[in-house]
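Our platform keeps sequence and structure together, in a single record for each protein. Nothing more is needed to write down the fold, since each code stands for a local backbone conformation. An entry from our holdings is shown next, in its original layout:
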Amino acid sequence: MVCGLERKRRFAIHIARAVTGAACAFLAGTSPAQQDLAAKPVFSGAEIKIILSHGPWPAPSQPDPSNRVSWKPEAIEFGTRLFFDQRLSASGTMSCSNCHVPERNWTDNLRRGVGMSEVDRNTPTLMNLLGSPWYGWSGASDSLWSQSLRPILDPRELAATPRHVAQLVRNDEQLSCRYRKAFGAPPSATDDEAVFVDVGKALAAFQETLMSGATPFDKFREALARGEPPAAWTYSEPAQRGLKLFIGKGGCTNCHSGPNFTSGEFFRTGLSRFEPHGRPDPGRPAGIQQLLKSRFNLLGPYNDDKTGASAAHTRQASLEKAAPGEFKVPTLRNLILTAPYGRDGRVDTLADVVKHYASLDPVQLHAKDGRPAKPLNLTQREQTDLVVFLESLSTFSNPWRPDDGGECH
């Protein structure tokens, strides 16, 4: 028995030496770049800290204090009905779901959205909107419920009026019943705007439930958080190399920070170049102007947060700090499902997005100080690794299923 064990031990040593020698011979015959490709990424303590800042997922959250029916089951059910109801539009032929398609990650995969006519911008996903400070590409809305009202009124989208919406809710037995259960009273018989705003709040309650699931990146991050070395087969080395670029050389976390991979703020990157109506899209400055003129902003009469704390970011919105051509930083979660990309939808693939940023200076995007830029000059392999990492932020699982809630009594 001892002799047998000794033979096995010597054989194992022989194999180990052979494998080590083969590896050394392989590396000796390869270029430094190829050897670097074969090297497993190693993350420093500082890098791990940044990685951990992108979680946990889903991130802890609270109901929206500006919306009294936020997270309320009856409001969610009411909002779900409204979201898919074509009668919400003036023509009776369009609903919110025409542009925000559940099977398309709540977008439409078109360059620019199409309602009654084509709009100027790409349709953003409705996933993971809870807790965002701004809504829309230019941040023209400061709450999810006020953003939900905007397309209903836009003549290019649903083209309706508060009167039309209020009458629909009053006159339809099921909608009226669900309104009463959500808000505790029947829809006002005379105040069209109040009923209209409540419709927006019910729509927001539904949209708050649209959260994406855990991704390969999330599982890798959780292993790091537990102090465990993640198995290579659960998170590929190209994805890890791409992650290292994302949090390091690429400077991507300057904009795409936090568990939802967005700061929620506005920057000018040059990714979108389409000029609607033959003139540049002003972006954030116009968004601030629209926000401050709106009766439905958080400084107005429909904010349910009587402390006023939820309107702090609205009060701080300043045209002096906004530059033309700045647009909101989108989330990167489920990015692989939301092509085409950019505010105007003119970029078809993730590889094209990465190629655009590969020649930019990430510091220059934020500094705005006029100093000469230092382009990243990412190699083709680095660009590929970054794409692999970005793909790892997606999951093809869509847990949402239609449910009309049955009859309301």
